[in-house]
Amino acid sequence: MTAPPQRRDKTMTPEEVVGRLSSGMTIGIGGWGSRRKPMALVRALLRSSVTDLTVISYGGPDVGLLAAAGRIRRLVTAFVTLDSIPLEPHYRAARQRGVFALTEIDEAMFMWGLHAAANRLPFLPVRAGLGSDVMRVNPGLRTVTSPYEDGEEFVAAPALRMDAALVHLNRADRLGNGQYLGPDPYFDDLFCEAADAAYVSCERLVETRELTEGGRPLSTLLVQRHAVTGVVETPGGAHFTSCVPDHPRDEPFQKAYATAAADPAAWAAFAARFLPPDGDEKSYREAVRVWHEEQK
């Protein structure tokens, strides 16, 4: 009788994840606005030389930081916001300077583009976008007609395929199963399934049995190991975005980030303190802790 195959330990460091990425890739980043973004992985990406990226994201400070560093060639998004601050300031500045190409589509078109990619389809039909300026500002979009009696016209939402996806969840095991504990799964599962490789950072690494203990429903097991390439334990790895219920958004720090982004000298000082090229997550957390002490 053949022994069952051993399940693989997929734990990695942020630096090992970024070591799998290369310039010119299409990278998907999960989360939503300033909520549950894989910021530790984004910060590791900033410390690398990887550039010329196509970024697919319901954007927040992930897009802002990569834009400020000049790493984006094209952005595919439905919005870029800090939630409590309506428009991400680095994104605003980058768009005003025209430093990268933009594909801006409706939220539903974005979602169905993820579904199409996850199912390895070239597109999926969607009503969203018809009769709107989405079609005007994206002249490459096409429509399709239903082959059935209704003959209805739809937008053909193109698949949002990715070389790699980065997402952040509350819990994960070493095999690649990931769980969210907050009020919204966003679309992290689709990001992982739409990508050739997916990397999950988490607030806490746990044993597999803990993912369903305490009466937690299986529905919270959002990401499953077959779609995950690597797992990174990064407590506070979504900072300064929220990761409910582990921690809320760090509103004072987000405000400081946005204020610094408005002035080149202030941003240089902010980046030198919190995002030095020779830093790591431990030094980042310590710098944030000291900053909060200074605000008291």
Explain this structure.
The protein has helices at residues 14-19, 39-46, 61-68, 89-97, 107-118, 133-137, 188-194, 251-261, 264-274, 281-295, and strands spanning 26-29, 53-57, 72-77, 101-104, 123-126, 142-145, 153-158, 162-172, 178-179, 195-205, 230-233. With 296 residues, the protein is of the alpha/beta class. The strands form two sheets. Strands 1, 2, 3, 4, 8, 9, 10 and 11 form an eight-stranded mixed beta sheet that branches. The protein has a three-stranded antiparallel beta sheet with strand order 5-7-6. The termini are far apart. The model has no long low-confidence stretch (mean pLDDT 95).
- In total, the number of strands is 11
* SSE succession: HEHEHEHEHEHEEEEHEEHHH
Which blocks of ≥5 consecutive residues have pLDDT under 50?
Answer: none
Mean pLDDT: 95
Could you give a short account of the major beta sheet? 8 strands, mixed
Radius of gyration: 20 Å
Strand content: 15-25%
Write the layout of secondary structure elements.
Elements: H1 14-19, E1 26-29, H2 39-46, E2 53-57, H3 61-68, E3 72-77, H4 89-97, E4 101-104, H5 107-118, E5 123-126, H6 133-137, E6 142-145, E7 153-158, E8 162-172, E9 178-179, H7 188-194, E10 195-205, E11 230-233, H8 251-261, H9 264-274, H10 281-295
Parallel strand pairs: 1-2, 1-8, 2-3, 3-4, 8-10, 10-11
Antiparallel strand pairs: 5-7, 6-7, 8-9
Helix pairs in contact: 2-3, 3-4, 5-7, 8-9
